[in-house]
Amino acid sequence: MLSLQEISDRIEIQQLLYEYAGAIDAKEFDRLDAVFTPDADIDYRAFGGIAGAYPEIKAWLSKVLPTFPAYQHMIGNAEISIAGDQARGRVMCLNPMAFPGKDGTV
Questions:
Q1: Under the phi-then-psi rule, with left for phi > 0, alpha for psi from -120 to 50, and beta for the rest, what region is 42?
Q2: Helix (H) or strand (E) holding 97
Q3: Contact 65/24 with Cβ under 8 angstroms?
């Protein structure tokens, strides 16, 4: 049975996932400051991106993502394990992205 603390922790982690997706999809990259700590290491290499410290990643996201005219995150199946003050997680994410056509339309 989950303790109230673990339930609360899980909900807070899930909320961070939603805040991340909302910030990215709205192209409001400053909102990511409420999601990541300044010393976070983030790795987008599996998606053809870069890996680095949060400030570098935030700058990269704000440069690269506006080139896509449309995208949206759909997240689910959050697997979260909590041990004391540490957590690990995995979330399934579908992120369809539109590319502009030769005439500039989506």
A1: beta
A2: strand 97-98
A3: yes
Structure tokens of 30? Answer: 């400053």
Q: What angle do CA 21, 33, 3 make, to 5 degrees?
A: 70
Q: What is the largest CA-CA distance in the chain?
A: 57
Question: Topology of domain 4-98, per CATH?
Answer: Nuclear Transport Factor 2; Chain: A, (3.10.450)
Domain ranges of the chain: 4-98
Residues in the chain: 106
DSSP readout, 25-84? HTT-GGGGGGTS-TT-EEE-GGGT--EEEHHHHHHHHHHHGGGSSEE--EEEEEEEEEET
- In degrees rounded to 5, what are phi and psi of residue 67? -70, -15
Enter the pTM of the model.
0.87
pLDDT per position as a tens digit, 9-67 = 999 999 999 999 999 999 999 999 999 999 999 999 998 999 999 999 999 999 999 98
